Amino acid sequence: MSGVISLVKANPALAPLFLFGGGGIVGGIAYIGHCLANGPDVIINKSAPQKPWQRIQPHENAKLWSPNKEFWQERKEKAEQLKKA
Question: PANTHER family annotated for this entry (predicted)?
Fold first, then answer.
């Protein structure tokens, strides 16, 4: 670590390289952690009897980002109406 600091002190133009490179690495690791924790197709606990794709309800969106949010809201409302009936 001290080698990097001394290198940046000697060449200040390298600071953005280390800053954005480090940010990219941290962001990549965070995304992998997010996928492992929240991904419907990731199995960490192999002793669990339920398959992960069976936990997703028909009205739930399994995508990280969806451009059509109204569609999923309508499906959720219809599922709630069917449960009440």
Answer: GEO09626P1, NADH-UBIQUINONE OXIDOREDUCTASE MLRQ SUBUNIT
How would DSSP label each residue in 8-27?
HHH-GGGHHHHHHHHHHHHH
- pLDDT on residue 49: 64
- ∠ CA 70-73-76, rounded to 5°: 155
Convert 47-69 to b/e letters by CB count within 10 Å (16 or more is b). eeeeeeeeeeeeeeeeeeeeeee
The one-letter amino acid at 18: F
How far apart, in whole angstroms, are the C-alpha atoms of residue 66 and residue 72?
9
CA torsion 22-25-28-32 (nearest 10°) is: -130
| 8-state DSSP, 45 | -
pTM of the model: 0.50
* Sign of the torsion angle spanned by Cα atoms 60, 41, 47, 49: positive
Residue 76: what pLDDT? 83
